[in-house]
Amino acid sequence: MTAVTTWVVERSVPSVAAVLCNADGSLFPSEEPAYEASTAVTNHFLAQLGVHHAYEPSELLDLTHGQSFRSAAAMLARLHGRHLDPEDLEQWVAVERDVVTAHLRVTLEPDAQVRAPLDELARRFEPGVVTSGASVRLSACLEVTGLADLFAPSRRISAESSMARPLSKPDPAVYSFACERLGVDPGATIAVEHSVRGAVSAVAAGCWTLGLLQFVPHERRRARADALRAVGVVDVVDSWWDVLSLLDRSRSRTAPPATARR
Question: What are phi and psi of 145, to 5 degrees?
Fold first, then answer.
């Protein structure tokens, strides 16, 4: 029996105060299309700093996975030894937000394999969503994927837009802020994350964290599952149905659900 299952069984499911869902890559498959749009902006940004390396989307994804553009841009500037003016950064953050949001609006679509289990989850808990990205991008993604009605605006937490000082995952600040905003104890909260940086953030904030592989390419699932476990997630599952099954089985005090299939 896994740690989170044992904990939920011993204290009963109603003691779970909140289920916090990561957005990109967990609620919808937005990472690849987002990086397609973001890479063009990133390369223009770097060119203005005098960097002559043009990144490919897959290269940027591997390098900055789980970070906001603000955090990734600052990291890339340091990596290439360039000074980054704060006012310039703010302008590029706005440009990237608008370009990526527009692209995701025409790329994403509803997915019954997300909506159906989340409908069931929402009947038991009032879910929240925690993202490093901007709230306008989050709202657009929830709208076009048909999930907006499941996440009340007050339960949408954005590191970029909700916090006075934006701090991207893997910093635990966004999860700590989310728990404080929602009035819940991190130790009574289950976070669902697909990325290592996101899991690090949730675990460090004190949340019980599940790794989710639903939108992780099959050839990367074994490595991702291992990496997620290495940073402290208490279980790794393949889908939102598995998340729901874990909570349901814990509620009925039966055997625990299977972890990520290898």
Answer: -95, 0
CB 244 within 8 A of CB 120: yes
Report d(CA 55, CA 31) in Å as an integer. Answer: 16
* Three-class DSSP category at 24: strand
Q: What pLDDT, in 10s, does the model give residues 42-76?
A: 999 999 999 999 999 999 999 988 788 999 999 99
Sheet-wide strand order for 156-158: 156-158, 128-131, 18-22, 189-193, 208-212, 235-237
| Paired tokens of 64 | 């900055």
- 150-185: per-residue pLDDT in tens? 999 999 999 999 999 988 889 999 999 999 999 999
Does residue 203 lie in a domain region?
yes
Closest alpha carbon to 53 in 28, 77, 84, 19: 77
**Closest CA relative to residue 27, chosen from 149, 142, 177:** 142
- What pTM was estimated for this model as a whole? 0.85
Domain boundary among 62, 92, 107: 107
Helical segments of 57-172, H only: 57-64, 69-79, 86-107, 112-124, 135-144
The count of domains in the chain is 2
For 15-39, what is the mean pLDDT? 93
Rg of the chain, C-alpha, whole Å? 18
Q: Would 256 be classed as within a structural domain?
A: no
